[in-house]
């Protein structure tokens, strides 16, 4: 039986409106979205200046992924506010996978508690598309100093009292430094630098006693004979730095692990996120990538999208505890 024309029009209008209200991504099957992406050049955003340890990592993966993506990859260096400048830039960009933040996801979790008004909510605004590697932070001293162990530094710093100083330039370093002081009773004053390289002259002159550094910077400076690495912040030894004891082995319990990731806005379609994950998995699993990350003091880490996202959420929770334990007051 044929429906009256008025009902047919209403039904047709309702159906049309329903289709119009659907998210664009749902109108196309996942394979179609994956085939359409990427449709333009990719931008990999680095949160530190050119030539920095982070920049080395970003440019390495950009070079390897370029032939897989079949597109030019432009590296943009947007530094400031411990990664917040770059994070806000990427997470406010169009969520289409063409702008990717390659940075320490653990630092983004930490910034939730180290800043009074972080520009993004790491738990809600970030989709972790892929993992790159895991790394510890490293306690190090200038090679001109006589200290060979963490215990040596602790003894010397207790003698100096509140005249002792140490260098940091990242959130993980700040927490590592505060946990070390809390466990040992050392009264050293934190001196925050823009990047690790800026602290070297002060370390050499003795104005800074020790530093908490990322392993990329620390290992490169150790090879050049400028820094002596003493211990790592992770709960277990890293294969890339197997000769270094953990801070826990040195009698200062902690388990701080930094990890690099490829991150995009949370609204990025899952097929696009999966494609980014596939690119990174392919290159991170190679012997070349293992050698590269080991040389920089880290262990390569391949994880699924869901595993990576779960780790970010866990880090957001954990860093809240770290900040409270270290009694760190949010800045800015």
Describe this structure in words.
With 332 residues, this protein is α/β, with parallel strands linked by helices. It has 13 helices and eleven strands. Helix 3 links the parallel strand 1 and strand 2.
Helix and strand string, N-terminal first? Answer: HHEHEHEHHEEHEHEHEHEEHHEH
Structural class: alpha/beta
Largest sheet: 6 strands, mixed
CATH architecture of the largest domain: 3-Layer(aba) Sandwich
Low-confidence runs of at least 5 consecutive residues? 1-30
Count of structural domains: 2
Whole-number radius of gyration?
23 Å
**What is the typical, i.e. mean, pLDDT?**
89
Q: Give the full name of the CATH homologous superfamily of the largest domain.
A: Bordetella uptake gene, domain 1
Q: Tell me the number of helical segments per DSSP (H or I, 4 or more residues long).
A: 13
CATH class of the largest domain: Alpha Beta
Percent strand: 15-25%
Query: Strand sequence of the main sheet, in spatial order?
Result: 2-1-3-10-4-11
How many β-strand stretches? Answer: 11
Features:
D-Maltodextrin-Binding Protein, domain 2; 5-stranded mixed beta sheet; 6-stranded mixed beta sheet; single chain; globular; disordered N terminus; alpha/beta; 2 domains; 18% strand; 11 strands; 332 residues
What would you say about this model in short?
The chain has helices at residues 5-21, 30-36, 53-69, 84-91, 105-114, 122-125, 150-160, 171-184, 200-205, 215-223, 270-284, 287-295, 305-325; strands spanning 42-46, 73-77, 99-104, 126-135, 138-142, 165-168, 189-192, 210-213, 227-232, 258-265, 299-300. By secondary structure, the chain is an alpha/beta fold.
């Amino acid at each position: 039986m044929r429906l009256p024309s008025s009902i047919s029009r209403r039904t047709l209008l309702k159906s049309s409106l329903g289709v119009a209200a659907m998210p664009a991504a749902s109108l196309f099957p996942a394979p179609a979205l994956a085939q359409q992406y990427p449709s333009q050049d990719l931008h990999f955003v680095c949160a530190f200046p050119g030539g920095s340890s982070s920049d080395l990592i970003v440019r390495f993966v950009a070079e390897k992924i370029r032939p897989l993506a079949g597109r030019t990859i432009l590296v943009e260096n947007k530094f400031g506010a411990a990664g917040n400048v770059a994070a806000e830039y990427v997470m406010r960009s169009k969520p289409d996978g063409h702008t990717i933040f390659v940075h320490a996801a653990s630092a983004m979790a930490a910034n939730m508690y180290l800043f009074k008004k972080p520009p993004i909510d790491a738990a809600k605004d970030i989709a972790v598309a892929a993992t790159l590697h895991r790394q510890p932070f490293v306690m190090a001293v200038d090679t001109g100093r006589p200290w060979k162990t963490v215990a040596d530094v602790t003894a010397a710093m207790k003698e100096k009292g509140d005249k002792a100083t140490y260098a940091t330039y990242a959130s993980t370093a700040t927490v590592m430094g505060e946990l070390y002081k809390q466990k040992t009773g050392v009264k050293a004053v934190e001196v925050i630098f823009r990047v690790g390289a800026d602290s070297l002259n002060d370390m050499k002159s003795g104005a800074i006693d020790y530093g908490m550094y990322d392993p990329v910077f620390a290992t490169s400076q150790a090879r050049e004979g400028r820094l002596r690495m003493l211990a790592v912040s992770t709960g277990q030894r890293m294969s890339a730095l197997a000769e270094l004891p953990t801070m826990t082995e040195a009698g200062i319990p902690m388990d701080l692990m930094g990890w690099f990731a490829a991150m995009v806005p949370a609204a990025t379609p899952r097929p696009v996120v999966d494609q980014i994950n596939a690119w990174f998995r392919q290159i991170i699993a190679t012997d070349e990538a293992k050698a590269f990350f080991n040389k920089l003091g880290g262990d390569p880490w391949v994880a699924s999208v869901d595993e990576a996202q779960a780790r970010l959420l866990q880090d957001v929770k954990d860093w809240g505890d770290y900040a409270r334990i270290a009694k760190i007051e949010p800045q800015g």
